[in-house]
Amino acid sequence: METEYLSTGFKDVDGAQNQDAYFECLTLLDSLPYYREYKTRSYALLELHPGQTVLEAGCGLGDDAFRMAERIMPGGKVVGVDASTAMIHKARLRNRTARLPVEFLAGDIKALPFASHSFARCRIDRVLQHICEPQQAIAELVRVLEPNGLLLAYDNDWGTFAIASEAVEMTRTVERCWCDSFTNSRIGRDLPDHFRTAGLSDVIIRSGTSVITDFEMADKVYNLRATVQKAVEVDLISAPQGCIWIEEQIERTVNGCFKVSLTAHTVVGRKRRPA
After folding, report:
1. DSSP string, 92-128
2. Which letter does DSSP use for residue 133 in this model?
3. Which CATH number covers residue 14?
4. Is residue 101 situated within a structural domain?
5. Which tens digits make up the pLDDT trace of 49-66?
6. Residue 54 is inside which H or E element, if any?
7. Which H helix or E strand runs over 245?
8. Are 52 and 121 in contact (CB under 8 A)?
9. Alpha-carbon span 206 to 164, nearest angstrom
10. pTM of the full predicted structure?
């Protein structure tokens, strides 16, 4: 089965030949310590407490929705929205076992099916990097947020993506090929500006850097082999160069020298009360 290219494929999971690749990617990321730490920190930054209504935009398999639901019980509710009906189906199946106060809906986060001021908190995690006009999505999240409510977004700054290698120019080519395939490669660094433009106040920023020290793990997360192949296909590098580069990364793992890092930003803003 053809390898799914994660940087572009998340925009249309329902149209993918291998949907399991996206389910497995989300499950893998959710299992990594760095991801669990920033997710847990995001729940604290949202100041969740019992009785709140919370929107998880781009909910995927529902992991964050489930964990937030535990924090807003009793009396609260989490609504998870995702563009993929396949993701929503999986999330609903999982909640049959969890039986938490979570509702999952398929929908467009740029045209949410909710009245204004419907949620005390809104959260969006690694979604804006995949969509056009992210400011429209942020404005829509602000619309459905209650006055004085909090919006939290976490996303990557692909301009910081770095792979350790002695082949500097070759590595830069691979890095750029992967990073430039995202719809919004700079969204992480642009989030504070988008929040302020949307009228949010008390904007705070928390940044973190994920580090992976194993080539095979990094390949699962960042499609390194597939990216090298794409670079070959568009004549950015030759096939022999690509093979040598991959062999170097595998050897670096064996020698304890492999490293790939990426910085991302968590941004939180408050919706102003009407004057």
Report:
1. HHHHHHH--SEEEEE--TTS-SS-TT-EEEEEEES-G
2. -
3. 3.40.50.150
4. yes
5. 999 999 999 999 999 999
6. strand 53-57
7. helix 239-254
8. yes
9. 25
10. 0.96
CA-CA-CA-CA dihedral for 204, 51, 43, 90, to nearest 10: -130
Tell me what pLDDT residue 2 has. Answer: 60
Phi, psi angle pair for 70, to nearest 5°: -65, -25
Q: How many domains does the chain have?
A: 1
Q: What is the three-class DSSP state of 164?
A: coil
Domain annotation covers residue 1: no
**What are the tokens at 46?**
């949202």
What CA–CA distance (Å, rounded) separates 35 from 53? 24
Opening angle at CA 108, ends 105 and 112, nearest 5: 75
Rounded Cα–Cα distance for residues 271 and 149 (Å): 5
CA distance readout (Å), 68 to 84, 122, 148, 152: 21, 11, 19, 13
Residue 30 near residue 63 (C-beta atoms within 8 A): yes
SS3 138: helix
What is the C-alpha separation between 229 and 245, in angstroms, rounded?
11
Q: Provide the residue range defining the domain that includes 160.
A: 6-271
Count other Cβ atoms within 10 Å, centred on residue 103.
Answer: 13
Residues of the chain with pLDDT under 50: 1
CA dihedral 48, 49, 53, 54 (to 10 degrees): 20
Question: pLDDT tens digits, residue range 206-236?
Answer: 999 999 999 999 999 999 999 999 999 999 9
The C-alpha R_g of the chain, in whole angstroms, comes to: 19
The verdict on residue 66 lying in a domain is yes
Tell me the two tokens of residue 1. Answer: 């089965």
Cα gap 209→140, rounded to integer Å: 29
